[in-house]
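Supplementary Methods, section 5.1.

A reviewer requested that the exact input to the structure prediction be made available. We therefore reproduce it here, unchanged from the version used in the analyses.
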Amino acid sequence: MHPRKFEKRYPDYKQYSFQAALESESYINIRINECISQLYKHSSSGKTLDLAQWLEWLALDVVMDVAFSEPVRFVKEARDVGGLISSIHEMFLAIIIMVNFPGIVRVLQLPFIWPLIAPKDTDKTGAGATMRAANNAIRNRMEQGNTADRRDMLQHFLEYRDLDGKSMTRQEIEIASLTPV
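The structure derived from this sequence is encoded token-by-token as follows.
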């Protein structure tokens, strides 16, 4: 593949580099320590804990923190904040169907069908709710700047320039930001 095509098609490869992982390590440690603290707090009550649930909350807080410097606070609140986890689970069936039956995807993406069924960030559940979380983080960053002064994935997307010096469009940033979520 020609380097220019690769660069335009995969503008976000640097966000997944070893260096980017090292930049995020201290923030991941903060989320892990927060989870351990909350586990101690909740386990001292004598109630049974669902460790799988806590690990899912931790994983998504880490992803949102690394992606947008905005953990959702699943661990802190010990619940599915805003139904985001449920929305992600709802997307799994659709993803499985699309991966295994690509012909269905081609039909669903027809111009007269897709606008009727496409997720929108106004949806209360499913992919739309996930889009809303990512789009809110993007909007906040564009309006307020990088107040945390962090090198998260969103900051990489905002600073990205292709070989011609062009930055990503808002739509490209929104699409790339959904990848980690």
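Residues 3-178 form a domain with the Cytochrome p450 fold (CATH 1.10.630.10). These observations are discussed further in the main text.
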